Amino acid sequence: MMPMGSPAAVRVGEYEIVPVTDAAGVLPLAGKFTGASDGDWAAARALDPAAFAEDGGWRMDIRCYVIRRTSDGWTALVDAGVGHEHSPAAGWSPSAGRLPEGLKELGVDPGDVSVVVLTHLHFDHYGWCVDRRGAPLFADARHVVQQADVAALPPDSRAEPYALDPLRRAGLLDPVDGRTPMSPGVAGVTLIPTPGHTPGHQSVLLASGRDEVLITGDLLVHAVQLVNPAVAYESEADPARARAVREEVLAEARASGRVLATAHLTEPFIRL
Ligand SMILES: [Zn+2]
């Protein structure tokens, strides 16, 4: 298994998949993962050395992906990062979110985005759904989330008042149920339920012939879960289910040659 270096984009058929880093920095690592042996940690360090900060912390990227169809510029965004300096993630995030600047550097205006996929409703994935005024930032985009994730939100989650309510009021929230094509007229892009991290966690599969990329959200959050998918992360709602789905997805990726595009590992693209 290997990181693919840092390509600016990966191509699948008529789509290009472009990583955009919203935030990055060091968070505590101790106690976050259970079930990892010393060998697992050594393998993880070999695979993703930059994730291991000198102070023993976890250097993490918080990354979104732009999907762009080269023929006509149709554009989607997968995940919306930590958001602005007053977002729910602001007290946790190791740095301020810069997704709007990152999109601008790619020549993407928020108004160009037709679909925003939220892999799940943790605060480092929905931050830029709204701007500093609380209005939808991607004002012409359908925001797709699994209904199971909306239904499972704890009463104290800030996802509802911060992101989902404004999106609903603007008619931009589209909860879906299960495996779903991304959009009518958008061939080869499918939302795939990958529950466990949250009850309605989903991934995005792009497929064209033998070329496949799976944008994995938080199916795995650290290289240690890539070297040993049985390793649990503390934020997983259902660790047993998360483990089973992770094992299944990694086995499938290994068999198919499918590239994984993760939210939090240092290298955006991994081939097993
Ligand atoms: Zn995350």
Topology:
Blueprint: E1 2-3, E2 10-12, E3 15-27, E4 33-34, H1 38-47, E5 58-69, E6 75-78, H2 99-105, E7 113-117, E8 142-146, H3 147-151, H4 159-169, E9 173-176, E10 180-183, E11 186-193, E12 202-208, E13 211-215, H5 223-227, E14 232-233, H6 239-256, E15 259-261, E16 269-271
Parallel strand pairs: 6-7, 7-8, 8-9, 13-15
Antiparallel strand pairs: 1-16, 2-3, 3-5, 4-14, 5-6, 10-11, 11-12, 12-13, 15-16
The structure holds zinc ion.
Zinc ion (ZN) binds at residues 122, 124-125, 218, 263-264.
GO molecular function: hydrolase activity; metal ion binding
Organism: Streptomyces smaragdinus
Family: Belongs to the metallo-beta-lactamase superfamily.
What does it look like?
With 272 residues, the protein is α+β, with helices and mostly antiparallel strands. It has one domain: Ribonuclease Z/Hydroxyacylglutathione hydrolase-like (Metallo-beta-lactamase, Chain A). The chain has six helices and 16 strands. The chain has helices spanning 38-47, 99-105, 147-151, 159-169, 223-227, 239-256, and strands at residues 2-3, 10-12, 15-27, 33-34, 58-69, 75-78, 113-117, 142-146, 173-176, 180-183, 186-193, 202-208, 211-215, 232-233, 259-261, 269-271. It has a seven-stranded mixed sheet with strand order 1-16-15-13-12-11-10, covered by helices on one side. The protein has a seven-stranded mixed sheet with strand order 2-3-5-6-7-8-9. Strand 2 and strand 3 (15-27) form a beta hairpin. Zinc ion is lined by residues 122, 124-125, 218, 263-264.
